[in-house]
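Re: export button greyed out
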Amino acid sequence: MTAMLNVKDLRAYYGQVQALHGLSFSLNEGSLTTLLGANGAGKTTTLRAICNMVRSTGAIEFDGQPLLGRSTENIVRLGIAHVPQGRGTFTSLTVEENLQLGAITRRDGAAIVSDIERMYEHFPVLKQRHTQQAGTLSGGEQQMLAVARALMLRPRLMLLDEPSFGLAPLVVRDLFKILGKINREDKVTILVVEQNAQLALELADQAYLIETGRIVMAGAAKDIANNEDVRKSYLGY
Amino acid sequence: MELFINQIVSGISTGAIYACIGLAIVMIYQAIDHLNFAQGEMATFSTFISWQLMQWGMPYWWAFVITIAFSFVGGIALERVLFRPLAKAPILTNVAGFIALFSIINSCSGLIWDFTIKQFPTPFGDAPFLGSQLISTHQAGMIGVTVLMLIGLYLFFTYTRIGLAMRAAAALPESARLVGINTSWMIALGWGMAAGIGSIAGILIAPVVFLEPNMMLGVLVYGFAAAVLGGLTSPLGAVVGGFLVGIVENLCGTYIPGAGNELKLPIALALIVCVLIVKPAGLLGRPIIKRV
Amino acid sequence: MSAAEEVVTEGQAVEAVPKRAMTLGTGTSLAVLVLLLAVPLFAKNFVVFQMTMLLIYGVAVLALNILTGGSGQFSLGQSAFYAIGAYCAAILIEQYNVNYALTIPIAGVLCFAVGFLFGQPALRLSGIYLALATFALAVAMPQLLKLNFLEPWTGGVQGQVVDKPDAPFGLPIGQDTWLYYFTLVITVAIYILSVNLLRSRSGRAMMSIRDNEIAASAMGVNVALYKTLAFGVSAGITGVAGALGAIAVQFVAPDSYTYALAIQLFLGMVVGGVGWLPGSFIGAAFIIFVPNIAESVSKGLSGAVFGVLLFLVIFLVPHGARQIAIASQQLAARFKR
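Workaround output, generated via the alternate export path:
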């Protein structure tokens, strides 16, 4: 299996403060990986570093192409979609405009229209509200919108930052089911950062554990879930 | 009563001037979150260019179109060369930059075309509009062009891809980058469009206030007032604000005793400040919530 | 156009200047003071006059520094307070025969009151809106000064002449020199008071408001009081500068105090380095001398030359003279090793 994303010795800085201390990991094509860790461990920073939203050194390769040094928008154009923390929805624009923005870099007009229809099939609630302003949607609906917007890019890799944040458990289960479906059927490689370790480990095939800017554990999700320490610290039993 | 209506209509036509500049100001504000003090000077310079083209024999509408194109490109160039490097500098530094630009353009206008007042032609003629004594055909033309611009902008922003991208970049630059939009170029585009709109405003105003390097100074203040009154986030608000400022200015001059010409400006400004205190986001702007 | 609300995460409008770096070291300050004291010994009358104006403008820029660099409120309207101070001094001296020295504190107190009052409605505005409102004040002031019914006091459009005072106690020094030392004493006093203000509890309260108003308020800082106080203090100091200016120039007229002055003071603050009190005087030097330089380079293009020089400063030292001071400090530290 080829490594789609290769991260080597990644160090990231917020001003003078160093948040990542030499992170290294890789993602295989078609995998669904989760990045776990406590608050402040550096999970969000990792995703931001991949998209060059934070000052970093090291090497990041996507399909063999180096990412460090490219602007965020150029990284996105390579096929990496990032659903940020807080979802980053354009609240003053309509649901449909948000979806159109997801595809703003694409030139194939007809395919964009049919993709929007597909999004409405994945997420029927969006179709109901498609002329409403995105800011009037509930938290769960906005999360669906954010994921749909990311999918409109037809990304090869999708990064999600704490998609379960602030959502009711049932909503999260639905969302994760959809993510799994997207990974299997649309062949989108997914890296999801989560604090909700249990659900994330059920969904993913691979997992990494970050503590204070370093990877401390790596392996198949099932194995990590069965690990004694992980169970005690992150799963509560 | 007739005097009152007269003043209102007259106010609307002077207001068209303020509405135009107000539009240009909102354009730039949407792109960069700052008020560009040099915009009046840029508009004056563009108007001089079109005057010069006509002096060289070019017909009015050709000069009009070429000037707009030149202003659009010039606005983008100014942003790329002078203000993109300042993108990460403190706000105050940017404001100092606008002031420096103001100074340079004003001085160059004076040097190239000197300070004597020049006549500027109007394609609309100066006859009474529809036979009435209220407004002239030129004033009607100004209002018409302003409304057309507004409609054009609305269509651009609502129905084109670039318009949508610009709206997104203005609303949430980080999210816009995450869908692949080059937000830096969206800012440059905003400058270009503002410069183009400003040039149209200048060309419309020049027949009325006569062309000279300091033509826009007073108008700029009213333009700011119009934009703020209408709400800095709303192009429609800028236009409505412009008309309102024109009307208020006229009514104050006519009805407040002792107010004559000198107090028109301070009174209008005082009223604007009052509106700001009561409704800081302006009449049509979105209310702004400050979050920690 | 839409009903949704716009959520703004308020970033810092004004950068924080670390408290330690707010002034020069004691050694440097004393050296500068000695130099300033020596000026009239070497320089001709006209240069002494220019230095007096430099101190006066420096004080005005310092006032703006307290307001913007200290409490984070923008003002493009300082020229209005300067004008009030100037006219206050002129009217008191010419029409009520008040001793010129007394007019200074009176102008200060009057302008403090006006500034404090203006600070009230200003509470509702911030950032660009406050800049605009203060700009409106600056634009309106000359018009207000030209009002017909005020003419018996203000002298209308033509303005009023002010007598220059002689040195007291029959001291054998010229008027210009005496005025220079008089101004210097007041300037030093204001500078020391300002430094102490910014280092005091009130100063910390103001700076906390500058850095994060919501957090400051949540910590019990009386935001409204400190913001209006900042306006008052800043206006008061500007009024003192205005009064001194009226006496130095020997003339007050409405068109001497237009928005152009407000913009110049603002530029002086930016060039000197926002929030860096010593920079106020470097900024004042910029706005006094650079237009002269520009004019000597090219008379017709003086505006353009001024603009280009300003851009050079902006690009090379965006944080103003403070940046140069810090750089030289670091350089000096390296030499010491």
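Residues 1-11 of chain C have pLDDT under 50 and may be disordered. The button fix ships in the next patch.
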